[in-house]
Design a protein that fits this description.
The protein is of the alpha/beta class. 24% of the residues lie in helices and 34% in strands. The strands form two sheets. The protein has a seven-stranded mixed β-sheet with strand order 3-2-1-4-5-11-10, sandwiched between helices. It has a four-stranded antiparallel β-sheet with strand order 6-7-8-9, with no helix packed on it. The two termini are 32 Å apart.
């Protein structure tokens, strides 16, 4: 998805990729339910993959971005049983069935219903009997969707500030979002500003991504159509209920 010159890929590890303790513990709990092989779908630079790689199980780290996977490979050591698979989430295959597939902050990059179905079919095919797919989506919040559709909202809003490793520079990331209501697609444009230690602007870079918001009943029906049964749903990684103000975390079991 991102080439080596894209600022998202270059800055990913110390900005977007950070996972909270609750996120990490949630996915570790899902993975540790089984002893067999697992898949980390859209693994990025391996933030979650590396959390599981000290166990004896085989891990398939799947992503479409060669630059992200290059970073992951640089972190791997021979004793880690990680096999890197470069492929899109809607067309991947694995050499053996896996007992769990996890995917963090990625499923919404399927921009059409066809893409969503293809991804779920790939996951279904890759899972062993009674395997589980654990992933999250954004619940469409009506107030948020209405706000990003207004003219006044089309201004960059700061997303976060991050110290750049091995440097005195500071990275300031801002974003602006636009919505295509017909296709349920949000385009997020990102601005990356590098500041020196005196807060002087050194350079400005831009990137963007698209994501599709999906209503809960849509995803539940898509899961049913592709052979899954709901096991659990949550709104937070510490397993609190979901509502219109939370994300939706889904555990879907392969119904064979």
């Amino acid at each position: 998805m991102y080439d080596e010159n894209d600022p998202v890929a270059r800055y990913y590890d110390f900005s977007f990729a950070k996972a909270s303790k609750h996120e990490t513990e949630y996915f570790k709990t899902v993975v540790n339910e089984v002893s067999g092989p697992v898949g980390d779908l859209c693994c990025g630079t391996g933030i979650l993959t590396l959390e599981f790689s000290d166990s004896s199980r085989k891990i398939y780290a799947i992503d479409s971005s060669s630059s992200m996977l290059q970073v992951l490979r640089s972190k791997l050591t021979p004793e880690k049983k990680v096999e890197v698979v470069q492929n899109n989430m809607n067309s991947f295959t694995l050499p053996e069935p896996v007992e769990r597939i996890i995917s963090r902050d990625a499923f919404f990059h399927n921009l059409t219903p066809d893409d969503q179905r293809s991804t779920l079919k790939c996951v279904y095919s890759a899972l062993a009997e009674d395997g589980v797919f654990a992933f999250n989506i954004h619940v469409p919040n009506p107030k948020f969707l209405a706000s990003i559709g207004t003219e006044s909202a089309r201004k960059f809003v700061e997303r976060g500030r991050y110290g750049i490793p091995n440097s005195e520079d500071l990275l300031v990331i801002s974003q602006i979002s636009e919505v295509d209501y017909y296709h349920q697609v949000i385009t997020t444009t990102l601005k990356f500003e590098t500041l020196d230690r005196f807060d002087h602007l050194k350079k400005t870079e831009f990137s963007s991504w698209k994501s599709r918001y999906t209503f809960p009943q849509e995803i539940f029906y898509l899961l049913e159509l592709t052979g899954f049964k709901l096991r659990n749903t949550f709104g937070t990684y510490d397993r609190k209920p979901w509502n219109e103000n939370t994300m939706l975390i889904i555990e879907a079991r392969k119904d064979s």
